[in-house]
Amino acid sequence: QVQLVESGGGSVQAGGSLSVTCAASAYTYCMAWFRQAPGKEREGVVTFGNDGSTKYADSVRGRFAISKDGAENKMTLQMNTLKPEDTAMYYCAADQRWRGWGRCDFVEYEYKYWGQGTQVTVSS
User: Fold this and answer.
1) Distance between CA atoms of 31 and 10, rounded to whole angstroms?
2) What is the pLDDT of residues 54-106, one digit of tens each?
3) Which residue, among 45, 28, 1, 47, has the nearest Cα to 94 in the 3D structure?
4) How many CB atoms sit inside 10 A of residue 4's CB?
5) What's the number of CA atoms in the CB half-sphere (13 Å) around residue 105?
6) Are residues 89 and 119 in contact, defined by beta-carbon separation less than 8 angstroms?
7) Integer Cα distance of 107 and 113 in angstroms
8) Are the C-beta atoms of 14 and 45 separated by less than 8 Å?
9) What whole-number distance in Å separates Cα of residue 37 and Cα of residue 121?
10) Greatest alpha-carbon span in the chain
11) For residues 28 and 73, is the Cβ–Cβ distance under 8 A?
12) Do the Cβ atoms of 53 and 104 come closer than 8 Å?
């Protein structure tokens, strides 16, 4: 069993920056951030594989950056140039199963463990 503890987030004006961090209680192979805005379906934001591979949603590429402290199983998403449309509940997800290089995808059912979510609000 892996527990995920999210921290960070908050409120900022458009153009500002925030970060969210997810700490896992044990080894994980794939970690990811998903987000869900009110009235919308949950969508993938970024994935990070234990092989160092990353994937970004088109909507955040170039503005968001993911990093991971492997020793602490901690993943941090740095969000820059935030837009009002980035407003959402951000969820950390993780799974321990090996998938092969670059195979951590935005497929929700492939992630067994989920955090409680942390709110990010961007005002215009």
Assistant:
1) 21
2) 999 999 999 999 998 877 789 999 999 999 999 999 999 999 998 888 889 99
3) 28
4) 21
5) 6
6) yes
7) 13
8) no
9) 10
10) 41
11) yes
12) yes
